[in-house]
Amino acid sequence: MDEALEVDVTGGRVRGAERRGLRWWRGIPFAAAPEGEWRFRAPQPVRVWTGIRDARDFGPVAMQSRDGAFVGAARTTPMSEDCLSINVLRPADDRAGLPVMMFVHGGAYSVGSSAEHPHNGETLVREGGIVYVSFNYRLGALGYLDFRRYATPERPIEANLGLRDQVAALEWVQANIRSFGGDPDNVTLFGESAGGNAVTTLMATPAAHGLFARAIAQSSPPNAVYLPETTAIWAEEFVELLLESIDTDGVESASDDLAGQVLVDATADELVAAAVTLTLRTPDAHPGTIALSPVIDGDVLPERPLDAFKEGRAARVPLIIGTNDREGSLFTGRLDILATTPKRIRAIFKRTKKSARKAIKAEYPGLPAKRPAADFGGDYAFWYPTVKVAERHSRFAPVHFYRFDIAPRLVRLAGFDATHGLELFAVFDRLGGWFGRTMTVLGGRRAFLRAGKRMRGHWLRFAHDGSVDPSAWPAYDESQRLTLIIDAADRVEADPRAPRRIAWQAFVPHV
């Protein structure tokens, strides 16, 4: 057994652990995050180690805060700029050539980690006989702000660092997963929320093509990718906030060279704090946008992913994609980042055709009241751009589209319904935790568990050979738009909410 737990990987030898029919390896470096003058650069090769590296525990998570819109890792959780580690989970046997499912965690590109839910993937491995991979990537200002304007020959700066980290993790899997019994030619990339955005963006990233065989995008905001003209504004606002917070005498924000040096000299905590302030301001300062997002840099990401899908330049791999019934209902209070307030909604309306506004208002009666506003904001960020990805990609590769509708009774009574992130409890079989037990205290547990079992069945069959049961889930195309509605009893609907889709098409034709 000890020999089976010792594996040679890029960088050296690691030893994992085995328990309850599973073997795992955690915290394996897949790349090195640059530091000092090279802080804002692409990931570097793994630093070689000697001896056998203990791989039983998760590595440090990306720098993040608990004071922003989203609650980050616990304050006692080890964090580091050098956070690029990967984890592998597989059955405790000697099978080889297993399908690989590689998960990209969410968290608005500001929080989260592969250790956030340490038992994620266990049910998938037990039920599906797959190898499950998760990993960390750089977040916040260190991963998702575009500081290229502050670069100098002596202090080079690159963009899309978190996206580059994700490509490096995919490359590591290609080079190493055979050692864990996985098949590098049978990798399914999947993710939720920001992780879903990562999936749709990586499909449009040429460097990632050929590194995965199929993809699953859960609740992706596919259009949260911006032109450099926009990201430069956020970079300038960030630097001004940073200068204010560290009170650097004699440094003017207009001086790109000096400001760039401050970016390099600032502590990681100072960068995180400024990013929190920026992201809290952005929903009102720039309604409908998310500051921490990939940028169309003309290098790693040459074009808007939605355009790549339209022209067939996205990776032509089979795709499962979908959203939850009411994505936007979660984003209230502390999480209020979508276009859900009257001011933000007015700003969206001003950027669209006047002739199309009446039809959109008819789809959200009472707008901008709380419930219709939540649905408007959720559809703007998640549902409608996801529909566009599905219809465009279906011209070039198989697509299966879903909508997740089931929600326990307490969640419905609280007004959330099937909201953003709820399907993770089904995919990862999380109802055994305290939050999952609380959600179902008023009923609905058995139906939710059964829906989760069916959903995992679809995901696992897809991971094995790229197919789903055609009798239960037909392929999606523009003529019929057949959609699997995941509920207490699953059903297939043709073009659900067609009037709403048509209204959005006229309202935001640029999407």
Topology:
Blueprint: H1 2-5, E1 6-9, E2 12-15, E3 17-19, E4 22-29, E5 52-54, E6 85-91, E7 98-104, H2 122-128, E8 131-135, H3 140-144, H4 161-176, E9 182-192, H5 194-203, E10 214-218, H6 228-246, H7 256-265, H8 268-285, H9 305-311, E11 319-324, H10 342-350, H11 357-363, H12 370-393, E12 399-404, H13 409-413, H14 423-427, H15 434-439, H16 445-465, E13 482-486, E14 491-494, H17 498-507
Explain what you see.
This protein has 511 residues and is α/β, with parallel strands linked by helices. It has helices at 2-5, 122-128, 140-144, 161-176, 194-203, 228-246, 256-265, 268-285, 305-311, 342-350, 357-363, 370-393, 409-413, 423-427, 434-439, 445-465, 498-507; strands at residues 6-9, 12-15, 17-19, 22-29, 52-54, 85-91, 98-104, 131-135, 182-192, 214-218, 319-324, 399-404, 482-486, 491-494. The strands form 2 sheets. An 11-stranded mixed sheet has the order 3-4-6-8-7-9-10-11-12-13-14, with helices on both faces. A 3-stranded mixed sheet has the order 1-2-5. Helix 2 links the parallel strand 7 and strand 8. Helix 6 packs across helix 8, helix 9 packs parallel to helix 12 (370-393) and helix 11 (357-363) packs antiparallel against helix 17 (498-507). The protein is globular. The relative contact order is 0.10. The model has no long low-confidence stretch (mean pLDDT 95).
